[in-house]
From TrEMBL:
Taxon lineage: Eukaryota, Metazoa, Ecdysozoa, Nematoda, Chromadorea
InterPro entries: Rab-GAP-TBC_dom, Rab-GAP_TBC_sf, Rab_GAP_TBC_domain
Protein's recorded name: Rab-GAP TBC domain-containing protein
Alphabetized Pfam families for the sequence: RabGAP-TBC
MF GO annotations: GTPase activator activity; small GTPase binding
SUPFAM superfamilies tied to this protein: Ypt/Rab-GAP domain of gyp1p
Residue ranges constituting the Rab-GAP TBC domain according to the UniProt record: 44-201
Amino acid sequence: MEAKRVYTKFWADYFPVVMRRRKRWEHADPRRDPSKLQRFVYKGIPAPYRREIWMRNCAPRGPPPLTIVPPVTVEAIRVDLPRTFPDNQFLHIERFRNALGRMLYTLAQYIPSVGYCQGINFVAGLILLVMKDETKAVDLLIHMVRQRHDYYNETMSGLKRDTRVMQLILAKECPQVARAFKALDVGLDLLHWKVVSLLVC
């Protein structure tokens, strides 16, 4: 109950910011100016614009490779499907849950060196929730993983490297925040993963 109260208060405070950003997008329409668009994206993309902006630089996935997805990967996907945003009504609908499963299977098929990475189901689920289109969602997921391949491989070397850089920057630029994270035992690897998974929403 406490968490719900805190979230409700946070959203009540943050909602005016969201609406203000949305009005700025509607007024300025930064989609026509690449330099302006970059500035606007850094501050957050309002929900009505996300599908278009996310797909702007998304390369098509190409023809399907002749890759057999190992049974252990298929089973891992099957087990994690009901765990993906379990409170989300959209993903409770069987056809959308099945679409998420197909997305994860297709990712494992296209990028066998990654296969199925623990937690990628939440990234895929978020993309599907925004796109509401399985084909576009799969294209975007595969494109994203290809761009950050070392975030999702077995060692997660890219994620670890960037997390370390983030720690150094945070300690230098925002030492109070760094100390607060340390006191709360909040690992920046988790925080960084969340930032990446939100795709600059």
